[in-house]
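User: Predict structure, ligand nicotinamide-adenine-dinucleotide.
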Amino acid sequence: MRLQNKKALITGGGSGIGRATALAMAAEGADVAVVDINLAAAQAVAKEVEALGVKALGIAGDVADEASVQAAVAEAASAFGTISVLFNNAGIIRRANVIDTTTAEWDQVMGVNVRGVFLMCKSVVPLMIANGGGSIINTGSGWGLKGGGDALSYCASKAAVVNMTRALAIDHGKDGVRVNSVNPGDTNTPMLREEARQLSQEEASFLTEANDRPLQRMGTPEEIAEAVVWLASDASSYVTGSALVVDGGGIA
Ligand SMILES: NC(=O)c1ccc[n+]([C@@H]2O[C@H](COP(=O)([O-])OP(=O)(O)OC[C@H]3O[C@@H](n4cnc5c(N)ncnc54)[C@H](O)[C@@H]3O)[C@@H](O)[C@H]2O)c1
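Assistant: Predicted complex:
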């Protein structure tokens, strides 16, 4: 049990990578608070987590909203005693270039993907410091490390996540708080199908393109979860400020 006694909070835990990570962390012994803007999804995953024999919470929360973040963190911390693992995973994408991205869409993507990570860390880092440390994992993307087409706001937001991670690691290493980013390539979740829809591309051809990488297939949410569990666990005790790429060799 690699996460025995850990108390985890996962944003965007109601679907895809967040859900798979909630289950993987629970299987390793962590109690898990699943925070999602979609309460029904958060509660459904919390039920699955509970079935693995740990404590679980399904909490409605919008990571872009400060009051909502504070309430979600307070609920999890009071139920579990503290938060020792934070997985900032909630994210959205808008597939458009600079001309077609509306100002509202830019603000929405930055609000969830960047402000969300900032607000969560602002609430959780003091709890971790009071507790002698913790592990924060932020979901970046291959497109936070290199550019991508028709995804201007997303690329900007994920590059911000990768570098915020380094800044957080520098500030809070002395507090025992480790901060790393996990950077998936195309991973088989509802987000990929949403991208095909936004680009008006046929789903099958979009998914075939996603397989085009050295390992010749897209990733599974469970494969990303495995990397996050490692970063959350004491097995990665000397790792902070890193950008771990889990993408089948896509950006290699
Ligand atoms: N799927 C991929 O190919 C891929 C690749 C690289 C990075 N990522 C990143 O991985 C993360 C998870 O993506 P996924 O593929 O599992 O997507 P997903 O769409 O399956 O899940 C995202 C979850 O976040 C929740 N969410 C959205 N806005 C929120 C908000 N404001 N507050 C709280 N929750 C919110 C959604 O309700 C959903 O449950 C995202 O940050 C995404 O950018 C995904």
